[in-house]
Each structure stands twice: as structure tokens, then as C-alpha cells.
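User: Hey, quick favor. My workstation is busy. Could you predict this chain's structure for me?
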Amino acid sequence: MDVAHLQVATVAHLRWKSKLADFFYGLENLTVADVPDHMSCDFGQWLYKSGLEEFAAYSEMGQVESLHKDFHAAIKRLVQMPEAERKSPAGKEALSKFKAQCDEFIRVMEQVESQAAKDSI
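Assistant: No problem, here it is.
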């Protein structure tokens, strides 16, 4: 079982967490066009081509799929948020919720990765 895709996805999604924080603080410019949907990003392509089948034995994969879809939707909502709203308490709360969502996605990914690594021994 190839856990490399899970590791690469973890790093890529952590980068999005950082990119979005930079965007909120005016250090990065992002548009909705910069945000791929959950099926066309590298992880999504792998997930729907072979990942869900390859890791079907892990019940968490349904959660991975759902969290990944929500992750992309949240990024798009936050990127579309007007600058004034991003700088408001509500905007900061939205960013905080996104970071927690990202952390949950990473936690579940690492759980699947850990289980798969043990199973391949």
C-alpha cells in the first residue's frame, strides 16, 4: 500500500493552511481561480482514481473524502470574502475555524497513514 500520496497530500494541505493565513494578513494574493476543486487537485485526482479503492479497508477514508471536499469549499468561501470582512472579528473567526478544519483533516490522514504503515509490515 502506497502511503506516499497521503504524505504528499498532508504537506500540500498544510501549505494551503499557511497560504490562506498569509492571504488573510495581506501577504499573498489569491483568487477563486487559484483554488482547484476537490476532484481536480493532485490529491483529489489520486483519491478518485485509485485512493478510495486502495484504502477501502480503512473506515476513515469516507471521512477523508468528506473533509477534503469541505476543505476546498472553505478555501473558496474564504478567498471570496471581502477584505473588510477578512479583517473583522468574524473573518478572523472564519480563518480560525478553517485552521481547525485543516488540523482535523491532517489528523485523520495521519491516522490512515499510520494504520496503513502498520498493515504493510
